[in-house]
């Protein structure tokens, strides 16, 4: 063994193969990370917040987060973890679709983020009614949500796919505006049906199937008769919603944007006041 | 009734764990991890260069306390739930064992360092109460119809509970807050104090306490030897230092299983239940970095304690120490 290692070429090759071996990478990353997010030195893993996991851990996480999310649907971090651990194939599919679309390709290269710090709220408030930016702002105010409340991506093992997951989360609110759905349970389920048809993410499909279990009879009826079919049809035929550079379209009118994306306006108008207090 | 069931469970646990005792010298420990704290104690480098371990990561000594504080601040609310989930409830048995070995008598004063959510202190108070009630029952059973004189003599013994005091000391205010809430919900009104303090620099005078316990806290301190010296200082002569801590598993099969469980399952549990992967990753790594049974025993003896013994329970150990 010592003779073998003394030959520099063999040693180099062995070192290289050792360093590039997945096991070593996993071990290195595994041993390196523990830094808290508040520390300023370089992050460990493939992107800030990345946590390296084995497939066994991902499976456990998927099951655990699924159970936790079912027990308490307001645990958004668990829904996020479920999406990340089960969405690998769907994310690859989404990436292909985005690459094939010119605007989507721009997004993948420029990596825009939708956060309060990047939005010019005053300018958006000054836009005319029925414009996309103004309606989005109205949606944020009426439902009392903020674009900064999205959980960061942790368990996706590819930097580009992690960005796509993040973009999906940030676009979720914009989808609410585009579809005209508030953030109560019925609105969320309708948006989930749309997203399940559009993206194919297993988390969306699960949410779409299990969400209606928490609705009362009248809402179930409106879901199955009008909202649901509308959401599914539009999800299937609409352009990939992740491929739109929303940040450059605040001035565009909402109707115009809907037509461009091939989305019909909602059959029912739901108001944000339908939102019930945390229940069930 | 609860106490007698506990006794039975304790006996059963003892029987099943009897075989897992560690042999003195040849412990197959992972290289390097036993040397962790001793290298940080070695004063060959300057104060700025001195580094210690935070899990598998190397950090400057001044950093470690801050990061440990942050970890426990984050997990405080779900600490008890997570303990139950990670150890499948077995941690309760370990703590009961600690109390059984401790066997405190009414009138004892306990200092529970890194006591956090108060598990040891509550058990201590329960145990004392149980002892007192047993005594009263015995006294009542032995005497027939006591005279008025006898009855009135017994009255002052009613406030005996206050003589036994437990002081819960922890560096982390969040953990103490959770502990206080638990005490309130359990209806404990007297005999318990909550103090914020650093185990390496305790805010108490010398020779104050009969028993000093530190359960699953000593691996989080930056300087173990300083902590041990403080323990020696605040204990009365003849007082006892009792430490419950995770340590090396001697059985290699169990060790492998334990490793897989620690690194694969526990951070996942942390993420799902507490929403915090990294704190529980730190927890399992810090267990690996802690010195093994014999080395820790050596450290305790070096500090000045006598009659150091340790007991192993499923890989976690209980040190009992007498000071004379």
What features would you describe in this structure?
The complex is a heterodimer of chains A (280) and B (324). Chain A is mainly α. Helices cover 61% and strands 0% of the residues of chain A. The longest helix of chain A has 21 residues, at 159-179. Chain A is globular and about 50 Å long. Chain B is of the alpha/beta class. Chain B contains 12 helices and 9 strands. Chain B has helices at 2-17, 36-41, 61-75, 79-87, 90-102, 119-142, 148-154, 173-186, 224-234, 252-274, 277-289, 293-303; strands at residues 51-54, 57-60, 109-113, 165-170, 192-196, 209-215, 235-246, 306-313, 316-322. Chain B has a 7-stranded mixed beta sheet, with helices on both faces. A two-stranded antiparallel sheet of chain B has the order 1-2. In chain B, helix 4 (79-87) packs antiparallel against helix 10, helix 5 (90-102) packs across helix 6 and helix 10 runs antiparallel to helix 11 (277-289). Chain B is globular. The A-B interface holds A 30-36, 38, 51, 54, 56-57, 60-61, 64-65, 67-68, 75, 77-78, 81, 154 and B 54-57, 67, 70, 263-265, 267-269, 271-273, 275, 277-278, 281-282, 285.
Summarize the structure.
The complex is a heterodimer of chains A (280) and B (324). Chain A is an all-alpha fold and 280 residues long.
């Amino acid at each position: 063994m010592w003779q073998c290692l003394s030959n520099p070429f063999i040693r180099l090759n062995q070192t290289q193969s050792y360093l590039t071996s997945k096991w070593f990478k996993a071990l290195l990353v595994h041993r390196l990370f523990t830094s808290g997010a508040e520390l300023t030195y370089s992050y460990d893993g493939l992107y800030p917040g990345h946590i390296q996991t084995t497939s066994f851990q991902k499976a456990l996480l998927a099951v655990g987060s699924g159970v936790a999310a079912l027990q308490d649907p307001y645990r958004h971090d668990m829904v996020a973890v479920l999406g990340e651990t089960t969405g690998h194939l769907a994310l690859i599919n989404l990436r292909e679709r985005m690459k094939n679309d010119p605007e989507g390709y721009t997004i993948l290269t420029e990596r825009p983020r939708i956060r309060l710090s990047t939005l010019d709220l005053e300018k958006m408030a000054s836009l005319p009614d029925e414009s996309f930016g103004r309606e989005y702002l109205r949606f944020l105010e009426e439902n009392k949500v903020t674009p900064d409340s999205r959980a960061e991506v942790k368990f996706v093992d590819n930097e580009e796919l992690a960005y796509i997951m993040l973009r999906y989360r940030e676009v979720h609110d914009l989808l609410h505006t585009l579809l005209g759905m508030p953030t109560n349970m019925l609105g969320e389920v309708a948006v989930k049906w749309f997203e399940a048809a559009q993206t194919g993410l297993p988390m969306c499909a699960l949410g779409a199937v299990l969400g209606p279990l928490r609705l009362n009879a009248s809402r179930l009826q409106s879901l199955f008769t009008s909202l649901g079919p509308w959401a599914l049809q539009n999800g299937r035929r609409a352009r990939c919603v992740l491929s739109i550079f929303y940040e450059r379209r605040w001035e565009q009118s909402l109707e115009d944007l809907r037509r461009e994306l091939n989305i019909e306006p909602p059959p029912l108008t739901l108001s944000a006041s339908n939102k019930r207090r945390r229940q069930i | 009734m609860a106490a007698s069931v506990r006794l039975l469970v304790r006996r059963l646990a003892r029987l099943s764990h009897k075989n897992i005792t560690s042999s003195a010298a040849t412990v197959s420990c992972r290289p390097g991890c036993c040397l962790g704290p001793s290298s940080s104690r070695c004063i060959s480098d300057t104060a700025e260069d001195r580094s210690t371990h935070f899990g598998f990561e190397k950090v400057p000594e001044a950093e470690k306390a801050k990061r440990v504080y942050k970890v426990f601040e984050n997990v405080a609310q779900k600490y008890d739930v997570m303990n139950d989930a990670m150890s499948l409830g077995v941690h309760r048995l370990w703590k009961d064992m600690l109390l059984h070995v401790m066997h405190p008598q009414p009138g004892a004063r306990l200092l529970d360092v890194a006591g956090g959510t108060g598990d040891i202190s509550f058990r201590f108070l329960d145990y004392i109460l149980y002892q007192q009630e047993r005594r009263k029952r015995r006294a009542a059973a032995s005497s027939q119809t006591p005279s008025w004189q006898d009855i009135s003599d017994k009255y002052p013994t009613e406030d005996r509970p206050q003589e036994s005091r437990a002081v819960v000391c922890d560096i982390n205010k969040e953990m103490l807050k959770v502990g206080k809430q638990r005490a309130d919900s359990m209806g404990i009104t007297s005999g318990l104090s909550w103090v914020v303090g650093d185990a390496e620099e305790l805010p108490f005078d010398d020779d104050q306490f009969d028993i000093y316990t530190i359960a699953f806290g000593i691996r989080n301190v930056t300087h173990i030897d300083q902590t041990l010296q403080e323990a020696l200082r605040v204990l009365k002569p003849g007082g006892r230092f009792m430490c419950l801590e995770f340590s090396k598993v001697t059985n290699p099969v169990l060790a492998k299983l334990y490793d897989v469980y620690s690194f694969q399952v526990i951070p996942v549990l942390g993420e799902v239940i507490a929403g915090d992967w990294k704190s529980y990753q730190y927890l399992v790594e810090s267990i690996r970095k802690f010195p093994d049974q014999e080395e820790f025993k050596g450290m305790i003896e070096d500090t000045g304690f006598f009659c150091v013994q340790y007991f192993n329970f499923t890989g976690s150990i209980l040190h009992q120490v007498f000071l004379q």
